[in-house]
């Protein structure tokens, strides 16, 4: 009897419904080749759900997802709905409810692109830090108006994300780069530095603690000198978009929102958004979605299939098939066909 996985699919908005079928087609092909099965449960959640029902997902949405093995998401967001509504109405509740405290974002250079070879792993803390509800707006309408936003860092939160990064580094360079700002942010960041150093020493990896401003410059000037990065929620978010940009395009960057203990489903999604400017034209790059699906297969334990999918994706590019964001002329469907073709030839 073959293994069967249940995956909840939230294709979402904009180019989400264009790139998600590409990823599903690749996984289905691999399922045939590697002898496993995937039951895709499609969820029509997102902006249209919000327009109709006043919420991004049903009230019992989290309960519905809880019974699956993984969640695959395209993109959520639309020009008529504020960004914070989409984020706090869907992604953040899922990350928190399912204890997805690691946001893993690999960055690799693309075949044929000029510049140094890149192979980074950005480990972003995903459930606490600067993204917090604590704070408020005060004295509205007066000249003394102010806003206060608290950041929440816990020892447990810093320890577990650093441990994850350290374990990855042990299989790689043995060093983690930690993003900090302890010269300007005098409570949370010194605490972050202290706990990161403790966990790293315990795990037997070196820490290179770098101020976020200097680290951003290093990403641009010497990205090949960086291996595993561990960063808070906000810093990690910024660094991973920067990483995607220096690798070539936001259209290639994948991400995994992981619950490493596997108590709950993890969520896999391309880093890019709904890209309303190119939606509906069939030209979106499905690379990020397909690579995210490879990360999902790896997490589910289908490591051979995951490696084959990543190879096929990079291989299609090496063959010269590329979408417009990478300077090519291929459509979403053409790039997907190239990947499927490589999978069948393996
Ligand atoms: P959101 O609010 O949903 O995050 P956004 O407009 O802030 O949307 P993206 O949707 O990521 O951010 O789009 C940023 C730019 O990158 C846009 O010009 C978009 O067309 C382009 N882009 C994003 N994803 C892709 C993709 N998969 N293929 C090609 N171009 C893309
Ligand atoms: Mg955006």
TrEMBL record:
Its EC number is 1.1.1.83. It comes from the Bacteria. It catalyses: (R)-malate + NAD(+) = pyruvate + CO2 + NADH. SUPFAM superfamilies: Isocitrate/Isopropylmalate dehydrogenase-like. Its cofactor is Mg(2+); Mn(2+). The keyword Oxidoreductase applies. Residues 6-339 form the Isopropylmalate dehydrogenase-like domain. Pfam families: Iso_dh. It is an enzyme of class 1 (oxidoreductase). GO terms for molecular function: D-malate dehydrogenase (decarboxylating) (NAD+) activity; magnesium ion binding; NAD binding. Keywords: Manganese, Metal-binding, NAD, Oxidoreductase. NCBIfam families: TTC. Belongs to the isocitrate and isopropylmalate dehydrogenases family. This is D-malate dehydrogenase (decarboxylating). It comes from Agrococcus baldri. The lineage of its organism: Bacteria, Bacillati, Actinomycetota, Actinomycetes, Micrococcales. The gene is ttuC.
């Amino acid at each position: 009897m073959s293994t069967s996985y249940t995956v909840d699919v939230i294709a979402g908005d904009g180019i989400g419904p264009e790139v998600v079928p590409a990823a599903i087609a690749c996984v289905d092909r691999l399922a045939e080749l590697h002898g496993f099965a995937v039951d895709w449960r499609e969820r029509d959640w997102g902006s249209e759900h919000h327009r109709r029902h006043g919420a991004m997902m049903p009230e019992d949405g989290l309960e519905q997802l809880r019974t699956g093995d993984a969640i695959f998401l395209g993109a959520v967001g639309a020009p008529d709905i504020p960004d914070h509504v989409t984020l706090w109405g869907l992604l953040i509740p899922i990350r928190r409810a399912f204890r997805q405290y690691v946001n893993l974002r690999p960055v690799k250079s693309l075949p044929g692109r000029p510049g140094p070879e890149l192979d980074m792993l950005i480990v972003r803390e995903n459930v606490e830090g600067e993204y917090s509800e604590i704070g408020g707006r005060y004295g509205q309408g007066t000249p003394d108006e102010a806003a206060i936003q608290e950041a929440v860092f816990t020892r447990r939160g810093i320890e577990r994300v650093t441990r994850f990064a350290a374990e990855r580094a042990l299989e790689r360079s043995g060093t983690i780069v930690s993003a900090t700002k302890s010269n300007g942010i005098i409570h949370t960041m010194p605490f972050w530095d202290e706990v990161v150093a403790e966990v790293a020493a315990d795990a037997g990896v070196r820490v290179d603690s770098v101020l976020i401003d200097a680290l951003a410059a290093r990403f641009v000037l010497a990205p090949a000198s960086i291996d595993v990065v561990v960063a808070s929620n906000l810093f990690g978010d910024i660094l991973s978009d920067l990483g995607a940009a220096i690798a070539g395009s936001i259209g290639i960057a994948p991400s995994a929102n992981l619950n490493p203990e596997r108590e709950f489903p993890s969520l896999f999604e391309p880093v890019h958004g709904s890209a309303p400017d190119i939606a509906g034209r069939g030209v979106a790059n499905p690379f990020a979605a397909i690579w995210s699906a490879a990360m999902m297969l790896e997490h589910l334990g289908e490591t051979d299939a995951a490696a084959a999918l990543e190879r096929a994706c990079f291989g299609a590019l090496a063959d010269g098939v590329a979408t417009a964001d990478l300077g090519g002329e291929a459509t979403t469907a053409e790039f997907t066909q190239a990947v499927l073709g490589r999978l069948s030839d393996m």
